[in-house]
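Troubleshooting: if your tokenizer reports a length mismatch, compare your output against this known-good record of 201 residues.
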Amino acid sequence: MLFVIQLTFTLLCLLYASYTDLKTREVSNTVWKLMLATAPFFAVYTFYHHDGFLLYVLSLVVTIILSYLMFVYNLIGGADTKALICISAVLTTVPFFALSVLVCAVVLALSVPIGLFVTNVRNLGWYETYASRRLVLIGYKPHVVPKFSRLLFDPKTGAFSKQGFDVVDKAEDVWVTPEIPFMVFITTGFVVCLVFLKSSL
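Known-good structure output:
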């Protein structure tokens, strides 16, 4: 019963975090404070009623260190770091679950370049896709520039991204790259890990 409560509570927090991150590109610290506030209760209960408490502590320490290092090296954002730590803190009976979520999130994030490539081939054709091969895995040509996107090339201003991509065929082309919050992949990875966990029980 405790495990179901932990999973449900964590999933709801992650869903809310993903929603606000998609909508405003910010996640309130209230979400993480709420999760951390419940963690001591789950930890104490686990200490008295379940085995493997030391493994839980080890898992939490490893997750904190790894998440912090990834944040320092700009591999993930601050909210993503807090999410992984909170997942590890709350799920006291499933050690290293947060790291499994991280691995799954990274794998899911790799689907974005594949999706962009398929979209560009469908919209541009093989010839133009090849001609713009330095852009097709990281961007696409939108009809209207989305609110949350980073401009790769704007022919009207002659501006390029910091990466310096400069392969375009038509003067009117504008390339943008979608900025999908990693929080979405963390939440999706959490659900995927839950499915695999359930199937293994």
